[in-house]
């Protein structure tokens, strides 16, 4: 197999993209790529989607040859295509009878050893496995491709792909699938001069795929840090690769993502993990991931999606649909710390993944603010590009008011940097010795250099600690409230996302301006927590192959651990809590929602006629009962409602649980941790058999939130003495 060409893309991409895009702008300056969504595929045997697409595109453009216009077809799981269109052509297609909607293709963002042990899914007898079923489980990974040469994706010991597999290997002539990575497709645009391959030239896709389902690989480390065995949640599972992201396009195109859903559903994957999102939550009919995930849900495929990395600001969660399992990020009990020893003997402790060993040698320290001759003081203090004077910083440790610009110090000859960071709960990888300090620690260093004639310091190699408080929500993890549907709590769950070591692409440097190349790297983000939950979902599915996506989601949510509430409005950061894989296998009760339930939910949101078809792909008419349904009455494992901040309120949630535990058992309700009045009717019920259902209502009332509080929460716990089925109840002010 030829060496992956990822490094070529990284180095040449900007130039090639500039040339290609400049040329395209001259030829197509009034055109852009639009997704022409046509809903469900007609049931007619003689229907030929590609011919139909060609016909209506020709009619709209007035061109007989549409080869240069057509970007891709959707023809396996739903109907439609993507094409280059002018605004007038878009309007023509939007008014065509067979077309449901026409919306622009956008570019979305990617949202990455000890983590699996931390959540309880350890190797050994305690974590039981169903090897044969796990080996028949297929995880579809929509990301930046994969490094097929990684040990994490070796097929040693694997038999042939499952018989249900209907996919293909179209990774390129330089990409070979095997019995572990059983399929590969590439949806990124072709750029002249750049190899078009499913090989990962970002590192992100390899990292997420191995986190979910990578083989167990011993003696993995980041230059000695985090040494141990790297493995996925379901190491025996198969991986299907759907490359939708590339550095050449600076992200992931939505027309490619929708095509990946089309194929993944048709390929018969068991679940989908997608660590990708927009800058903000979108209405469902504009959300490509929500549309694709709805079709996946209808076929029994769970979609697990990253919540986003825009925390700690509120209402920043980007994955908002209830049929998507939305994952926030938390830490584990392991962390990397990097110390700086000052000339006066004081030691300050910061965060970074620093594998460089300066042997404790102390170097002169200079503040960026005083190491510039051509910038204002504030810009120089931030070590802004173009501000530092090489003569003043070369061979020294540079103090920077922002960790974002430390590479500028390296570029100008610094041996190390001490920087201020607003996020000190996450360690980043840098291309030279750096420690990122909290404000108070940074001020200690400033005070030292301002009071010392010739300040010196040493930046030490990182240490690994295993006693930090955990799980705690990561500061970067996006929060609720849900910006689109206020009465649906998002994110749903949290999982390890901070400082995760997993497979990487050797052709991609681990940080900006880095010259190192490695097979495994450390990344942080909800991109990393998302495949953890995908791995847990796949693990549960090996025990319950017939469970629907909502049943799996419910099992994980209602058995979650409580999360340390060290953040503003923690209810909107942690969702139901922190994933607990072993408990989720035996949840006792589940909240189940079907396609018809989600359609009723949409009807209650005034999705009718054509708007409803935008999501479901089907022509349906909402009944009167569906149109009156309230979003908070969707049979969801959490319960959320907006209420007046200062006025009395009373809201009722209607729920139904299904018994997946033992027969002849009795459950009793208990409400904990609330200043609210919560009434559960009935508060006790008996179940004679498996799959028996029981309905109940939860009424929450109060005289107002009061006391300046904007949110109040509690927990409803159903228990039979063995199972503890926990659901968060959250009410919050409409004017929060």
Automatic annotation (TrEMBL):
Instruction: Provide the organism lineage as a comma list.
Output: Eukaryota, Viridiplantae, Streptophyta, Embryophyta, Tracheophyta
Active-site residues from the entry: 143 (charge relay system), 204 (charge relay system), 527 (charge relay system)
Concerning Gene3D superfamilies, the annotation shows: 2.60.40.2310, 3.50.30.30, Peptidase S8 propeptide/proteinase inhibitor I9, Peptidase S8/S53 domain
The answer to whether keyword Phosphoprotein applies is no
Record's keyword annotation contains Hydrolase: yes
InterPro entries listed in its UniProt record: Peptidase_S8/S53_dom (IPR000209), Peptidase_S8/S53_dom_sf (IPR036852), Peptidase_S8_Ser-AS (IPR023828), Peptidase_S8_subtilisin-rel (IPR015500), Peptidases_S8_3 (IPR034197), S8pro/Inhibitor_I9 (IPR010259), S8pro/Inhibitor_I9_sf (IPR037045), SBT (IPR045051)
Q: Where are the transmembrane segments?
A: none
- The name of this protein is Subtilisin-like protease
């Amino acid at each position: 197999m030829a060496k992956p060409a990822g490094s070529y893309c990284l180095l040449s991409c900007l130039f090639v993209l500039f040339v290609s895009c400049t040329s395209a702008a001259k030829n197509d300056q009034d055109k852009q790529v639009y997704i022409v969504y046509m809903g469900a595929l007609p049931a007619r045997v003689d229907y030929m989607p590609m011919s139909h697409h060609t016909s209506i595109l020709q009619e709209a453009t007035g061109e007989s040859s549409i080869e240069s216009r057509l970007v891709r077809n959707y023809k396996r799981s739903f109907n439609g295509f993507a094409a280059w269109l002018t605004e007038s052509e878009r309007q023509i297609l939007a008014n065509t009878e067979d077309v449901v909607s026409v919306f622009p293709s956008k570019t979305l963002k990617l949202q990455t050893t000890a983590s699996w042990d931390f959540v309880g899914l350890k190797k050994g007898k305690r974590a039981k496995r169903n090897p044969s079923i796990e080996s028949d489980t297929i995880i579809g990974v929509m990301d930046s491709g994969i490094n097929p040469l990684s040990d994490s994706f070796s097929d040693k010991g694997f038999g042939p792909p499952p018989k249900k597999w209907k996919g293909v290997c179209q990774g390129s002539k330089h990409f070979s699938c095997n019995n572990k990575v059983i399929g590969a497709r590439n949806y990124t645009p072709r750029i002249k001069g750049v190899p078009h391959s499913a090989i990962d030239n970002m590192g992100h896709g390899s990292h997420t795929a191995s986190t979910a389902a990578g083989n167990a690989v011993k003696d993995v480390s980041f230059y000695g840090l985090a040494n141990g065995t790297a493995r996925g949640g379901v190491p025996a599972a198969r991986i299907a690769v759907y490359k939708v992201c590339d550095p050449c396009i600076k992200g992931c195109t939505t027309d490619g993502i929708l095509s990946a859903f089309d194929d993944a559903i048709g390929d018969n994957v068991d679940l989908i993990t997608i660590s990708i999102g927009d800058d903000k939550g979108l209405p469902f009919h504009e959300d490509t991931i929500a549309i694709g995930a709805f079709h996946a849900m209808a076929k029994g495929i769970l979609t697990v999606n990253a919540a986003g990395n825009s925390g700690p600001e509120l209402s920043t969660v980007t994955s908002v649909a209830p049929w998507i399992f939305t994952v926030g990020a938390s830490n584990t009990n392991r962390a990397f710390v990097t110390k700086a020893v000052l000339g006066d003997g004081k030691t300050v402790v910061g965060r970074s993944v620093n594998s460089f060993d300066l042997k404790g040698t102390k170097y002169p320290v200079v503040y960026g603010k005083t190491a510039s001759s051509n910038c204002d003081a504030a810009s120089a203090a931030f070590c802004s590009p173009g501000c530092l004077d090489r003569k003043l910083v070369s061979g020294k440790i540079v103090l920077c008011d922002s960790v974002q610009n430390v590479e500028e110090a390296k570029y100008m000859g610094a041996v190390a940097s001490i920087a201020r960071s607003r996020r000190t709960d996450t360690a980043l990888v840098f291309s030279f010795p750096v420690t990122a300090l909290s404000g108070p620690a940074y001020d200690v260093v400033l005070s030292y250099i301002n009071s010392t004639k010739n300040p010196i310091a040493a930046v030490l190699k990182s240490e690994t600690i295993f006693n930090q408080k955990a799980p705690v929500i990561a500061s970067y993890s996006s929060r609720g409230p849900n910006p689109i549907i206020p009465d649906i709590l998002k994110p749903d769950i949290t999982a390890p996302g901070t400082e995760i070591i997993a497979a990487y692409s050797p052709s991609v440097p681990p940080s900006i301006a880095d010259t190192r190349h490695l097979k495994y790297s450390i990344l942080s983000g909800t991109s990393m927590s998302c495949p953890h939950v995908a791995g847990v979902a796949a693990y549960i599915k090996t025990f319950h192959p017939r469970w629907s996506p909502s049943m799996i989601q419910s099992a994980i949510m209602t058995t979650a651990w409580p999360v340390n509430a060290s953040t503003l409005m923690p209810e909107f950061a942690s969702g139901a809590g922190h994933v607990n894989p072993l408990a989720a296998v035996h949840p006792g009760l589940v909240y189940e929602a079907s396609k018809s339930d989600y359609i009723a939910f949409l009807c209650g949101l005034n999705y009718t006629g054509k708007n409803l078809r935008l999501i479901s792909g089907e022509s349906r008419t909402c009944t009167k009962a569906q149109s009156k349904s309230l979003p908070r009455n969707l049979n969801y494992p959490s319960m959320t409602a907006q209420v007046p901040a200062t006025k009395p309120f009373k809201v009722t949630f209607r729920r139904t649980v299904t018994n997946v535990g033992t027969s002849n058992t009795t459950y009793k309700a208990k409400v904990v941790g609330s200043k609210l009045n919560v009434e559960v009717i009935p508060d006790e019920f008996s179940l004679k058999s498996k799959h028996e259902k029981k309905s109940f209502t939860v009424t929450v009332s109060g005289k107002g939130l009061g006391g300046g509080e904007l949110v109040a929460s509690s927990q409803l716990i159903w228990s039979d003495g063995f199972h503890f089925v926990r659901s968060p109840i959250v009410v919050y002010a409409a004017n929060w």
